[in-house]
Amino acid sequence: MTTRNIPAASRWNTCRTRGKTEKADELIDEIVYELHGLTDEEIEIVEEAIEE
Questions:
Q1: Separation of alpha carbons 37 and 52, rounded Å
Q2: Which residues form the domain of 33?
Q3: Apex CA 24: angle with CA 23 and CA 27, to 5°?
Q4: Potential cystine with 12: which of 1, 26, 27, 46 (Cβ 3.0-4.6 Å)?
Q5: In total, how many domains does the chain have?
Q6: Residue 42 lies in a domain
Q7: Residue 30 CB: number of other CB atoms within 10 A?
């Protein structure tokens, strides 16, 4: 995924102010994954389900 040493919320704010909607959407997803404590394997399952 993305670098995890910077809080996802901080990265989202940076992208939002730059108007990068697609990147902001990805970071929102990451925030949700972090809030729910999902593992990389669980994230992969979720993302595959979204693509269908």
A1: 23
A2: 8-51
A3: 90
A4: 27
A5: 1
A6: yes
A7: 19
pLDDT along the chain (52 residues), means of 10: 64 66 83 94 93 78
Cα angle, residue 39 at apex, residues 26 and 50 outer, rounded to 5°: 45
Max Cα distance, the chain (Å): 31
End-to-end Cα separation, the chain, in angstroms: 20
- Please indicate, yes or no, if residue 40 is contained in any of the structural domains: yes
Task: Tokens for 14, please give them.
Answer: 């940076």
d(Cα 49, Cα 52) in Å, to the nearest integer? Answer: 5
Determine the Cα–Cα distance for residues 15 and 42; give it in Å rounded to an integer.
25
**For residues 4 and 38, is the Cβ–Cβ distance under 8 A?**
no
Model pTM above 0.85: no
Residue 2 lies in a domain: no
